C-alpha cells in the first residue's frame, strides 16, 4: 500500500490521535531501483550558445560582438570546438573526471511563439503540444506510473512552487525545506476532520503531515549528511555561502541518501535580455553551486546519480540591441553525476550561417531534449522504449542511444 | 441563482467581517466601485513621482559612493547608501501594510480585488531591491485610477509607465537604423513588445506571429526613461519608417511620434482576441478555475460592444447567474487569505497602522513567501497562477496552518471565542465539522487556527 493511499484511508476512517496512524512510520518496501535522478528545470530560457560556446564555429563571433566566447571570453576549452562559460568554471574538475557533459542544439517540440510560460509547460508536460488550456500531468509522473511499487517518497519536487513535472496520478511528494511544520496531536485530529470532505485539502494536508513526520524521523540521517558535508569541505570550496538554492540542493541530497530516488527543482534567472554578460553570472553560479552541493551531499550515492538540467528554449543566435539575447529555439542541456559518461558534448551541430539558423534567427534544434531524457530513464530505471515513446513522451522517436550513461 | 451578500463578500470581496456589512446588491457593489475611493485616502501610497526615496536620490547617493571610493568620504557615503536602503525596505513593508489594510477594513472589497487582479495582469517586478518600493506606486498610478474606465486607457498607462519600461527592458531598446542605434551600435530588445501581445492583450493563443512581435518592438522604440531625465519620447532612438503590426501600418510619414504607439496600443486593446482573453481571465480569477463558457462569452461580447468599457464588463459578470450559482471552489491566494483572516478577526485601521516593520517582515512578509507568494515577486511577468491545486500543496498548506495557529497564539487572550469566531469567519452556514472543531479544541488559539485553516474559510 503506498503511503498516500494509507494516509487517505486513515483520514477516511477518522482515526483518533491516540492511534496516531499519521505519525507511525510505515514499513517501506525497498525502492524500485537504486539509481538516482535529479531533474533541474532552468526557467527563463538559458542561452545555450553562451553557456556551452561553439567557439570553434567560425560564424559564432560575428553574431555576438559583445558576448565573447572561447579564450576571448575567459571560457574553458572543452573539446577544441566548444568552450564552457567561465561562470561554470568551478565545474571543470567534474568535466575532467567524466562527471559533467552536455547536449547541444536540442529543444523541446515547442516552436515559434517563444513564450516562456507555454515553453515551460511543454517542457514539463513532455508532450508535443499543450492539450487545452492546462496540461495536468508531467512526464516524470507518467514515467512513475509505469513502475509498480513507487511510493510518494520515491520522488520529491522541491521548492515553494509546485512543478507540473511531477504532477499526475502516480504518487509523488512535494515539499520545501523553508517550511517548518509542527502540530499537536489534537490539532492534527481536528484538521483531519475539517479537511475530510475536501479532497484537495485532505490530500495536501495528509502529505504534509506524513512528510513532516518523515523529516523528524530522519533527523539522524540529516545529521550524518551534515557531518559528511563538513568532512568534504575541500569539495565545497567553490560553493558560496547562503542562498536558498543551496538549501534546496542540501534537502534533495538528504532525501536521495534515504528512500528517495528522484528529485526535481527549478533554477530561475535565465531570461537575459539585457547586458547578458553580467546577468547570466548569477544563474550560472546557482547552477554550479547546486551541482557541487548535490555532489558533496550525496557522498557515495553520487556514483549512482544522474543530474539533467533542461530549459524551455535557447536564445537568439545574434546578440540583441542591448547586449543581451531574445527568446530563441535550440539550446543546450547539462548532464552531471557519477552515473553519467561525461566529458562529451553530444551534438549534431547544425552550423550558425544565416541559412542554417532556425527561422533565420535561432540555433537550429537537431534533436529533441526529450530523447536524451528518455534514454536516461531507460538506462537508469529500465523503462521500455515503447513506454517512453508512447506514454512518457508521446510521439517521441528516441533515435540512436546517445550513450549518456556509463 | 443570483446575488447573495455572503458570496459577494467572499467571491468578489475580501472576506467576511464581524463589523462590516456586506454589499446589498449588484447595483450596490457597482455604485461603490464607481464612487469615491476612500481607501486610497485612508491608506496613502504615494505616486511614482512623489514616492520617497526617489529613484533620482538613490542614483545620486550610489554615484557619490562610487566617487568617494578610496577617499575619507567613503564611510559617510556608504552610511548614506545604507540608510536609504533601509528606508526603501521599510517603505516597501509600509506599502504591503497599507495594501493589506485597505482590504481588511473596506466595504468596497470588489475595488481591492480588482486592483489585485489588474496589478497581476500587468505584473511588474523590481529587478533590484532599490526599486522594490516603487511597484506599489506604479499600481497607484496606472491601475487604481483606471479600474472602471476603458481597457485601452489602463493598457496605455500600465505598459508605458517607467516601472514597466524598466522591468521589461524597453528602456534599452533602440531602433537599429535610428540615429542613436547607428551611432552607438545599439538595437532592439523584444521583451516588452512580446509580453504586451502575449500577456497583456491578445493572449498567447491570440493571432499574432513572431513578425508582429518584431515589428511592434520596432514601433515601441523611442520610449525612454532615465532617473536623471525622467520619461520622454526620444525620436533619435525611434526606428525610422512604418511598422506593420497585426496587419495595420503605423507611422512612416514624417518623424516618429509617440502617437503611433498610442494608436497601435488602442487597436491591440480593441482586438477581438483581447476581448476574449480578458473576459476569460476575469472569470477565472473571480468565479472558477473552469468558468462557464456562456459567462465568458457574454463578458467578451460586452467588452467588444462597449469598446472595452471595463465597468460594463464587470456589470455583465455580476449580473450573470453563472457568476453566483457555482460552488466556492477557488482557493484564496496567500495574500488574500491573510487579508481575509485579519478581516474576520475584526482588525481595525488603527491596529493595522500600528504594526511595526519588524512585525510586518516576520509575521506577514516571510510567511507569505513560505505559502508560495513572495509579495510583489512572482517568478515572471505572467504573475501568479490561478489554479487551486497550485496553492494547496503539502508545503503550501503546512505554511498556512502554521501561520494561522501562530497568528492566534500571538493574539493571546485577545483572541475571540472560537464558538463565535466560526460564524464571523464562515458566516451563518458554518460547516458542522468546523463548528465541532471550534468547540472541541482544548486551546482557544488552536481552535482559531483550525477555523482559518479550514477549506470553508480558504475557498472562495
- First-last Cα distance of chain B: 16 Å
Helix count, DSSP H or I runs of 4 or more residues of chain B: 25
Percentage beta strand of chain A: 5-15%
Rg of chain A, please?
Answer: 22 Å
- Name the helicity range of chain A: 25-40%
Please count the beta strands of chain A (DSSP E, at least 2 residues each): 12
What's the rounded overall pLDDT mean of chain A?
Answer: 87
Spatial order of the strands in the main sheet of chain B? 1-2
What features would you describe in this structure?
Chain A has 406 residues and is of the alpha/beta class. In chain A, 35% of the residues lie in helices and 13% in strands. A two-stranded antiparallel ribbon of chain B has the order 1-2. In chain B, α5 crosses α17, α5 (74-105) packs across α19 and α22 runs parallel beside α24 (444-453). The relative contact order of chain B is 0.11. Chains A and B meet through α5, β7, α7 and α8 of A and α11, α20, α21, α23 and α24 of B.
Structural topology:
The complex is a heterodimer of chains A (about 400) and B (about 450).
Chain A (H helix, E strand, L loop, with lengths): L2 H11 L22 E7 L5 H4 E2 L6 H4 L12 E2 L5 E2 L7 H6 L2 E8 L8 H10 L13 H6 L10 E4 L14 E3 L9 H11 L3 H19 L1 H13 L1 H4 L7 H13 L5 E6 L8 H4 L1 H18 L6 E7 L19 E6 L8 E2 L20 E2 H13 L3 H8 L14
Parallel strand pairs in A: 1-8, 1-9, 5-11, 5-12, 6-7, 6-8
Antiparallel strand pairs in A: 2-4, 3-4, 5-10, 9-10
Helix pairs in contact in A: 1-8, 7-8, 11-13, 14-15
Chain B lengths: L4 H8 L13 H9 L3 H5 L12 H14 L5 H32 L3 H13 L13 H8 L8 H9 L2 H6 L11 H6 L6 H10 L9 H10 L3 E4 L3 E4 L9 E3 L2 E3 L7 H12 L2 H15 L6 H13 L4 H10 L14 H11 L4 H6 L2 H14 L17 H4 L2 H18 L6 H9 L5 H9 L3 H10 L1 H4 L2
Antiparallel strand pairs in B: 1-2, 3-4
Helix pairs in contact in B: 4-5, 5-17, 5-19, 8-13, 11-12, 14-15, 15-16, 21-24, 22-23, 22-24, 23-24
Amino acid at each position: 500500500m503506498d503511503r498516500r493511499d494509507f494516509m487517505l484511508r486513515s483520514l477516511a476512517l477518522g482515526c483518533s490521535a491516540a492511534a496516531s496512524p499519521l505519525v507511525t512510520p510505515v514499513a517501506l518496501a525497498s525502492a524500485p531501483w537504486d539509481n538516482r535522478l535529479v531533474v533541474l528545470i532552468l526557467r527563463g530560457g538559458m542561452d545555450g550558445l553562451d553557456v556551452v560556446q561553439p567557439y570553434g564555429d567560425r560564424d559564432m563571433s560575428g553574431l555576438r560582438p559583445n558576448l565573447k566566447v572561447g579564450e576571448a571570453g575567459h571560457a574553458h576549452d572543452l573539446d577544441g570546438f566548444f568552450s564552457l562559460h567561465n561562470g561554470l568554471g568551478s565545474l571543470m574538475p567534474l568535466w575532467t573526471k567524466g562527471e559533467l557533459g552536455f547536449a547541444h542544439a536540442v529543444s523541446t517540440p515547442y516552436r515559434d511563439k517563444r513564450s516562456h510560460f507555454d515553453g515551460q509547460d511543454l517542457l514539463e508536460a513532455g508532450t508535443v503540444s499543450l492539450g487545452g488550456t492546462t496540461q495536468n500531468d508531467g512526464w516524470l509522473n507518467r514515467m512513475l506510473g509505469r513502475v509498480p511499487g513507487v511510493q510518494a517518497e520515491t520522488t520529491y519536487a522541491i521548492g515553494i512552487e509546485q512543478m507540473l513535472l511531477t504532477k499526475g496520478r502516480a504518487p509523488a511528494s512535494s515539499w520545501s525545506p523553508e517550511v517548518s511544520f509542527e502540530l499537536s496531536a489534537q490539532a492534527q485530529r481536528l484538521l483531519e476532520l475539517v479537511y475530510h470532505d475536501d479532497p484537495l485539502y485532505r490530500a495536501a494536508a495528509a502529505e504534509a503531515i506524513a512528510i513532516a513526520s518523515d523529516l523528524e524521523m530522519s533527523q539522524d540521517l540529516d545529521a550524518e549528511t551534515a557531518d559528511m558535508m563538513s568532512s568534504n569541505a575541500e569539495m565545497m570550496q567553490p560553493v558560496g555561502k547562503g542562498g536558498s538554492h543551496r538549501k534546496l540542493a542540501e534537502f534533495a541530497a538528504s532525501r536521495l541518501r534515504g528512500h528517495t530516488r528522484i528529485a526535481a527543482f527549478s533554477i530561475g534567472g535565465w531570461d537575459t535580455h539585457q547586458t547578458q554578460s553580467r546577468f547570466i553570472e548569477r544563474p550560472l553560479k546557482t547552477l554550479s553551486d547546486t551541482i557541487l552541493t548535490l555532489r558533496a551531499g550525496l557522498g557515495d550515492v553520487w556514483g549512482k546519480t544522474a543530474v539533467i538540467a533542461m530549459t524551455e528554449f535557447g536564445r537568439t543566435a545574434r546578440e540583441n540591441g542591448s547586449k543581451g539575447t531574445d527568446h530563441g529555439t535550440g539550446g543546450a542541456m547539462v548532464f552531471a553525476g557519477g552515473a553519467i559518461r561525461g566529458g562529451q558534448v553530444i551534438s549534431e551541430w547544425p552550423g550558425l550561417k544565416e541559412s542554417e539558423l532556425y527561422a533565420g534567427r535561432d540555433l537550429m534544434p537537431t534533436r529533441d531534449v526529450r530523447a536524451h531524457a528518455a534514454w536516461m530513464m531507460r538506462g537508469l530505471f529500465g523503462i521500455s522504449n515503447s513506454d517512453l515513446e508512447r506514454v512518457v513522451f508521446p510521439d517521441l522517436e528516441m533515435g540512436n542511444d546517445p550513450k549518456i550513461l556509463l | 441563482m443570483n446575488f447573495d451578500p455572503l458570496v459577494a463578500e467572499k467571491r468578489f470581496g475580501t472576506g467576511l467581517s464581524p463589523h462590516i456589512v456586506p454589499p446589498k446588491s449588484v447595483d450596490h457593489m457597482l455604485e461603490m466601485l464607481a464612487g469615491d475611493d476612500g481607501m486610497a485616502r485612508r491608506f496613502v501610497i504615494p505616486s511614482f513621482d512623489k514616492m520617497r526615496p526617489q529613484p533620482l536620490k538613490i542614483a545620486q547617493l550610489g554615484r557619490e559612493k562610487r566617487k568617494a571610493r578610496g577617499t575619507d568620504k567613503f564611510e559617510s557615503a556608504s552610511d548614506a547608501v545604507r540608510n536609504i536602503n533601509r528606508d526603501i525596505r521599510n517603505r516597501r513593508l509600509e506599502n504591503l501594510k497599507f495594501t493589506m489594510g485597505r482590504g481588511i477594513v473596506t466595504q468596497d472589497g470588489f475595488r481591492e480585488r480588482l486592483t489585485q487582479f489588474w496589478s497581476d495582469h500587468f505584473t511588474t517586478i523590481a529587478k533590484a531591491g532599490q526599486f522594490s518600493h516603487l511597484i506599489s506606486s506604479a499600481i497607484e498610478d496606472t491601475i487604481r485610477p483606471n479600474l472602471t474606465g476603458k481597457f485601452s486607457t489602463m493598457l496605455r498607462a500600465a505598459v508605458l509607465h517607467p516601472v514597466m519600461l524598466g522591468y521589461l527592458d524597453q528602456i534599452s531598446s533602440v531602433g537599429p537604423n535610428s540615429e542613436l542605434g547607428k551611432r552607438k551600435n545599439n538595437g532592439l530588445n523584444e521583451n516588452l513588445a512580446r509580453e504586451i501581445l502575449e500577456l497583456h492583450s491578445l493572449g498567447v493563443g491570440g493571432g499574432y506571429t513572431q513578425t508582429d512581435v518584431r515589428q511592434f518592438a520596432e514601433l515601441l522604440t523611442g520610449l525612454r526613461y532615465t532617473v536623471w531625465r525622467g520619461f520622454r519620447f526620444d525620436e533619435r532612438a525611434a526606428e525610422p519608417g512604418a511598422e506593420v503590426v497585426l496587419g495595420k501600418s503605423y507611422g512612416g510619414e514624417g518623424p516618429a511620434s509617440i502617437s503611433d504607439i498610442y494608436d497601435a496600443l488602442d487597436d491591440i486593446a480593441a482586438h477581438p482576441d483581447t476581448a476574449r482573453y480578458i473576459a476569460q481571465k476575469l472569470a477565472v480569477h473571480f468565479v472558477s478555475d473552469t468558468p462557464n463558457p456562456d459567462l465568458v462569452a457574454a463578458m467578451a461580447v460586452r467588452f467588444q460592444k462597449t469598446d472595452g468599457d471595463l465597468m460594463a464588463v464587470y456589470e455583465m459578470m455580476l449580473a450573470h447567474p453563472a457568476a453566483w450559482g457555482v460552488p466556492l471552489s477557488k482557493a484564496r491566494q496567500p495574500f488574500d487569505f491573510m487579508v481575509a483572516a485579519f478581516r474576520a478577526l475584526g482588525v481595525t485601521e488603527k491596529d493595522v497602522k500600528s504594526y511595526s516593520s519588524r512585525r510586518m517582515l516576520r509575521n506577514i512578509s516571510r510567511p507569505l513567501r513560505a505559502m508560495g507568494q513572495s509579495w510583489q515577486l512572482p517568478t515572471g511577468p505572467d504573475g501568479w497562477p490561478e489554479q487551486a491545486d497550485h496553492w494547496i500543496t503539502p508545503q503550501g498548506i503546512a505554511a498556512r496552518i502554521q501561520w494561522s495557529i501562530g497568528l492566534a497564539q500571538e493574539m493571546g487572550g485577545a483572541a475571540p471565542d472560537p464558538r463565535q469566531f466560526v460564524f464571523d469567519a464562515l458566516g451563518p452556514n458554518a460547516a458542522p465539522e468546523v463548528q465541532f472543531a471550534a468547540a472541541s479544541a482544548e486551546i482557544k488559539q488552536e481552535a482559531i487556527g483550525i477555523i482559518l485553516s479550514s477549506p470553508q474559510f480558504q475557498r472562495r
